[in-house]
Amino acid sequence: xxxxxxxxxxxxxxxxxxxxxxxxxxxxxxxxxxxxxxxxxxxxxxxxxxxxxxxxxxxxxxxxxxxxxxxxxxxxxxxxxxxxxxxxxxxxxxxxxxxxxxxxxxxxxxxxxxxxxxxxxxxxxxxxxxxxxxxxxxxxxxxxxxxxxxxxxxxxxxxxxxxxxxxxxxxxxxxxxxxxxxxxxxxxxxxxxxxxxxxxxxxxxxxxxxxxxxxxxxxxxxxxxxxxxxxxxxxxxxxxxxxxxxxxxxxxxxxxxxxxxxxxxxxxxxxxxxxxxxxxxxxxxxxxxxxxxxxxxxxxxxxxxxxxxxxxxxxxxxxxxxxxxxxxxxxxxxxxxxxxxxxxxxxxxxxxxxxxxxxxxxxxxxxxxxxxxxxxxxxxxxxxxxxxxxxxxxxxxxxxxxxxxxxxxxxxxxxxxxxxxxxxxxxxxxxxxxxxxxxxxxxxxxxxxxxxxxxxxxx
Length: 459
Fold this sequence. Notes:
Elements: E1 6-11, H1 15-27, H2 29-33, E2 37-43, E3 47-49, H3 54-59, E4 68-70, H4 71-74, E5 79-89, E6 94-99, H5 102-105, E7 110-113, E8 116-119, E9 123-125, H6 133-136, E10 137-138, H7 143-162, H8 166-172, E11 174-178, H9 182-198, E12 211-215, H10 227-239, E13 242-245, E14 250-252, E15 257-260, E16 265-267, E17 270-273, E18 277-279, E19 296-297, E20 310-312, E21 317-318, H11 335-353, E22 367-373, E23 376-381, E24 384-387, H12 388-402, H13 406-421, H14 437-444
Parallel strand pairs: 1-2, 1-8, 2-5, 8-20, 10-17, 11-12, 11-17, 12-13, 19-21
Antiparallel strand pairs: 3-4, 5-6, 6-7, 9-18, 14-15, 15-16, 22-23, 23-24
Helix pairs in contact: 1-11, 7-8
């Protein structure tokens, strides 16, 4: 029995938000049925994105709709509100919410009252004040960005195939990725593999005509898999004629020219920025305690330190790592911790409602897996290092086991099976991003939007 009727507000529909709400609706079935508990989930999108599958979605191995999980279907006992929480005043137990209808109603933001708060807004791309980055950079954090990047790469090959200007051709076939973490390395590996395959259908574009460049500010890539596998990854990428530039920074991309700290300059129409993340801006718009790095200050029980009835986990939360040898260590902001933290967080809210002792989050890092393209990968799991096909296979098995719902597992497995039996799709559907262009031309004479004219180059 819960102590009294409890209104639980979950902010965010990512790993922590969705899995916490899912845990709560499973543990509190009777209370939800009897009206003793109410769970509201506020998320900017009506789905949760399984981000480890974004590189494969960009490469065309998985359909975009299969890397997302519909929140309304999964959280059928919760109230799902599509909108943005813009501020939280926990002292008054209120959250300001801007929904899709807010602008239409012209009544300003609405306010939600709650008894228990789960703050899991996640993170956004960490950008730097680099000239030209905002105008020409492409992110790789959402399914829309992944599919847009796929369309863009294929369109650049179309441009290179049809132009007679060597400068335009060279810029179209130069692809620069900034950031040597998971997102950057996996996106580059999968897209290079896809473009190499697609080039066989172009009479005048060869794999060696394309320049793929990875820029990393530190002296190593993929630090999560360890130094040995990081060095192996560099060697493997260079064997594929991918330039890996370590201890190098992007200093400018004005006029679509990537100027690097080592003096090199690359005219390019494709600059992908994957150089880290930072806590969501909502964290700063609350009256809750934060660390010097801007993350929510949490306890090992996933409560917000020094505050009652407030909980947090995931990228925006600084959670102590009780398994670490060095005091003060925090858990890494990754999916492995987020999913497991959500389970403990959901259980602890139930414990708090029932006046039971709280659990401590303690999880030793199992390892890391990364795909470098079709049949290529690296993995370090339980201290064992794998390379090539075994690592790629483990990458697929691990993430297939982790993607939510049996429905999604079955669909992803079916697509992988079909991709092994048939050829890849190499069609660009960039016009999907501007579906009214053709009708606008017919109705008013306005020329259809040309992806190649996009100021940010992201098609």
